Amino acid sequence: MNGLSTLLIVVGLFLAGGIYSFVKQDMPRSLIVLLSIGAGMCLLAGVMRLEVWN
User: Fold this and answer.
1) Is residue 8 a contact partner of residue 38, using CB atoms and an 8 Å limit?
2) Which SS3 state, helix, strand or coil, does residue 42 take?
3) Domain tally for the chain?
4) pTM for the complete prediction?
5) 16 lies in which domain range?
6) If 46 and its partner were Cys, which of 9, 11, 31, 38 is the partner (CB 3.0–4.6 Å)?
7) How would you write the pLDDT of the chain (54 residues) with one tens digit per residue?
8) Could you give the maximum distance between any two Cα atoms of the chain, in Å?
9) Interior/surface letters 28-45, b for 16+ CB within 10 angstroms, e for the rest
């Protein structure tokens, strides 16, 4: 695992925690969907950059 993939996975998990928090606070659904897309993209990019796929 290199630094960038680790950073992307950590940011994705941080945003996923934000999704949970925003749902508990009854924030607008559009904001939650936007945050979900960002978290998913960060997690996917971090996993795809792992060296196991080569």
Assistant:
1) no
2) helix
3) 1
4) 0.84
5) 3-53
6) 9
7) 688 999 999 999 999 999 999 999 999 999 999 999 999 999 999 999 987 766
8) 42
9) eeeebeebbebbeebbee
